[in-house]
Task: structure prediction
Amino acid sequence: MQCHGCFDIVHPGHIRYLEFASRQGDVLVVTLTGDSDVNKGPQRPYIPQELRAENLAALEFVDHVYIDPAPTAEGALAAVRPDVYVKGREYETSRDPRFLRERAVVESYGGRVIFSSGDVVFSSSALIASRPHDAYVADQRLQVVCARHGIDGDVLADIRSRFSGMRVGVLGDVILDRYVFCDAQNVASESPMMALAELERREFIGGAAIVARHAAALGADAWLLTTLADDEASHRAAELLADEGVMLDALRTRPSLVEKTRYLVDETKVLKVETGATAPLDSRAEKEAAERLAERSRELDAIILCDFGYGTVTAALLERVLPCLRANVPVIAADVSGARGNLLNYRQVDLLCPTEREMRNTLHDFEDGLSSVAYRLLATTQARHLICTLDKHGLVVFERPGQDPREAGWVDRLQSEHFPAFASRCLDRLGCGDAMLATATMALAAGASLVQAAYLGNAAAAIEIGMLGNMPVAADMLACWLHTRGELMSPPTAVAAVSCHA
Result:
């Protein structure tokens, strides 16, 4: 006898289904959908595959449990060749092509498909959605994911040690982020609007500059190619970058630096005002930028392309330089911010780091599941890896089963892993994505796997969200933060397959 499913939370409906299956023969084999193929939302499965397998194996009437690495049970059915394949009553009239293929496999060798009584109906998805957040289960899941991907304190320390002296290039717009701290007095007398009294101003150099600042603070030799103006704000930006060890290569093509002024009452942002127009590179500046990129690319370990939509990164420049960068730079990462950037311009890069909203806007797809949208983006751009950030819900890592475009794994269903947001408190979301992008890119360049890189990037974002304004995450800050993480201290032993009552 064989059953197959996700079994995210084993509920009474599952128990009766499995009991029914066990009565149909002498031995019951349960095949379990692996984590990377559970397509029920960004935070599913709720329970990782190793613990789901242990839960099923603990049931007396289950003889063998196998974690199936494939998206359907076709391969397992062909290998096991059960006399009876048991499915739930809801499949009796199903026209799902995945189930129909499984049914065809069973019937091809003379087996039978029967359906459970279904007298008790529960839904794991509904149970998970209705229950409050369980910190213990979340911690256990994180420990299992870390163990599965070789994420522990020693491994991350080794990766971070390779940040020192790494040569990282950054291309993109520099933005001046200004915070105006105010006191809310009352409603203005001349109109129903808030009256604010200014208390203090602070300025932060953001955009592509903060990505380069993160890289430098983490130990890299950072180089920034950007466009600046000949104004006071541009000069201040250049001085700060020099002080923080960022090598600046600036084309003075902008009329003024882009400025974003945010008005805050206490720690709450109440208004943002943007000044500074988009200033795309002209043909001469584009040629010069391409030449500088080509010359520098021969000595870079990684390059990060940051399109904030203000003119430094143009489609024509990317078309000109991406083949050269691909030939010379081991790791190319890219991200866009705002409606002006286009993710589809970044072809054959190693890492894309959009938000879910950016990804859906790019593809004009607001209905399909996240995995389907991610697959379309990777298929269209031919990019290798994707980290999709989900705001307060953390991030999801998507990668291909195979990284050789000539092999079947390049077009197979994506593998995915979810990390929750690591921050214990949220002070300011500004710059979290930039911290994640810089750190994850450097980790990939240091030889980390994509999931290990995503963990470190998520950690940097957690540190950034606890600081007010665009401040770089330094190497010692990251080391101290990681030292407090319980999942890195004693990871559990991962379970590949479970067998009991054999």
